[in-house]
Amino acid sequence: MSNRFYTDFDSEALGGTRKRDYRTAFQVDRDRIIHAHAFRKLQSKTQVFLSGEYDFYRTRLTHSMEVAQIGRSICGYLLARGAPLRGDFHIDSDLVEAVCLAHDLGHPPFGHSGERTLQELMAGWGGFEGNAQTLHLLTETLYQNEQGVRGMAPTRALLDGVLKYKKLYREFPTPPRHHFLYDPQERHREFVLGGIPIPAALHEGEKLNAFKSVECQIMDWADDAAYSLNDIIDGVTAGFLTVERIEAWAAGEAIDAERQRWLDQLLLAIRGDRLEGEFAQKVGHFITACRLRERTNFMAEKSNRYRFNLVVAPAAEREAAFYKKIANDIIFESPQLQQMEHKARRVLFDLWESCWRNYVDQGPRVIHILPPRVGRLIAAETTPAGKARQICDWLAGLTDGMIVRTYQRLFNPDFGSLRDLS
What we know:
By secondary structure, this protein is mainly alpha-helical. Helix content is 55%, strand content 2%.
């Protein structure tokens, strides 16, 4: 049965037509992401705790899989609710799955610590943003080769689905630290919107960043649902979140009756060793908290993806925010996680300086410390900003293990592995 929710406009691929087979355009998107090198690397990138430290902690890969499952389930639930959706008019779960699987592709090693450090390093060269980097991978570097292949020829709907933010770096009054697109990605934004001019009113404040397709909204809520709950589970398993620490934290917070109920449930689940089962049920609660509401905007006539808003029950949003605050205040501000931030800064700053000295400043003695292909990409750039972006791409693409080994080879005299030049 055909799905009238989407038109050729939604399934048009960046760069023109692509070979069609038995799969839908959105199934091709999903499959190309799953088989990409950058997707496999997520298994060794930090979610909260350093990748590889223990086998049961979530990585960026397992987190992306959980987000994809929640996203698909939201699509199924919304369809089961009936009008305005029906069998021949519904949000494509393969597309939402692809968006969810892709949403963290651009995140660097060392998790949010690595992202903050690259933001600092790239402040003078167009910035670094995890979401913008995901778009950069999908359109420029995924499946890239030296014969001119660039990106994965994604559909318009997939690109739009990962665009949590649509405002360009230069469109902010002062250089932002996050929530922006790179300036050269303006052409991809134009493609996503089909060349339709953006109303002036949307450029005010954060309005343009809040303007998202319904698939992007589903991904965003699925992401919130996954990490708000699962960061708590991993924190308890790791021993960061104990009953005593949570009670001490709560003593310093303004806890109303609603939050007290969630707090009591959390503490009871930890004491009874039932946390994972209890929070698995909350995933279902967050899925069934979703509704659709029709909206009007400058894209609604062009695509059904902008004809509907995802509406999440306010109580579910407040509960997710409550768990995120616990995780942030107790886990992310802990000395152990701050030590990882310190390590990320040291490693990334030292590697950046070595790359810059040998590939940009190029003094009397140039040492080729990077893989030859990366060196050629840097050499092909004609501006310092272009070279900085190539260095940033290389650093952001490394896994936790790869960047630590690279650092050790360059700065640890006792480490000299020649087998795994990354």
